[in-house]
Design brief:
It holds the Pfam family YceI. Keywords: Signal. This is YceI family protein. InterPro entries: Lipid/polyisoprenoid-bd_YceI (IPR007372), TTHA0802/YceI-like_sf (IPR036761). By secondary structure, the chain is of the alpha+beta class. The protein has a single domain, classed as Lipid/polyisoprenoid-binding, YceI-like (Lipocalin), CATH 2.40.128. Helix content is 17%, strand content 52%. Strands 2-3-4-5-6-7-8-9 form an eight-stranded antiparallel barrel. The mean pLDDT is 90.
Length: 191
């Protein structure tokens, strides 16, 4: 009986020791109100730009280091900032339509961090899965993380997400109606 009590006490001590030395993962929620996603798309004859609102997001931190995270963008919030009046409304309507992001069906886009590699200083190499319009593809980029913010610039090939309107990769004889396949995102996250 004494031996069983000693074994039980030893097992409990080992478990408590392991729990005490296991690093806790902290969920660092992003302040969606103060964060921003700015987009820029180019065509043969110029470019347009605007914003997309972040719906929610968080980073996972362990001992002050980034280890994961997940972010959701509200695609219904696509806004055009370089036009005014009817031209602005027309372009926003077109971007929200099935020709582009089909926001009635696909109201959100999502990014999930799969792996993180610390580079130097406050720069992390990030890889993860980006889902737009129900299509998921891997993406990798560098992220600069400071005490209360994280920033990055991404180049996204829209055709990988079934956004093909005006793409000369899929359509011939577009001439000056050609829209480049890649668009840029400047992301500034506050927490």
């Amino acid at each position: 009986m004494k031996m069983n009590v000693l074994k039980g006490a030893l097992a409990a001590t080992v478990i408590l020791t392991l729990v005490a030395f296991t690093n806790a993962i902290e969920k660092k929620k992003v302040n969606i109100k103060d964060s921003s996603i700015t987009w820029e798309g180019e065509k043969l004859t110029g470019s347009h730009e605007g914003t997309i609102d972040l719906k929610d997001g968080y980073f996972l931190m362990e001992e002050g280091e980034l280890v994961g995270g997940e972010f959701t963008a509200d695609m219904t919030s696509i806004n055009v900032t370089d036009l005014e009046g009817d031209s602005r409304e027309k372009l926003m309507g077109h971007l929200r339509s099935d020709d582009f992001f089909g926001v009635d069906t696909y109201g959100t886009a999502k990014f999930v961090i799969n792996t993180v590699a610390k580079k130097k200083g406050n720069i992390y190499g990030i890889s993860g899965d980006l889902t737009i319009k129900g299509k998921t593809n891997p993406i990798a980029f560098d992220l600069e993380m400071n005490e209360n913010s994280a920033t990055t610039n991404l180049v996204i090939d829209r055709t990988k997400y079934d956004v093909r309107y005006g793409s000369n990769t899929f359509f011939d004889n577009l001439g000056d109606k050609t829209i480049y396949d890649e668009f840029n995102l400047a992301i500034d996250l506050k927490f």
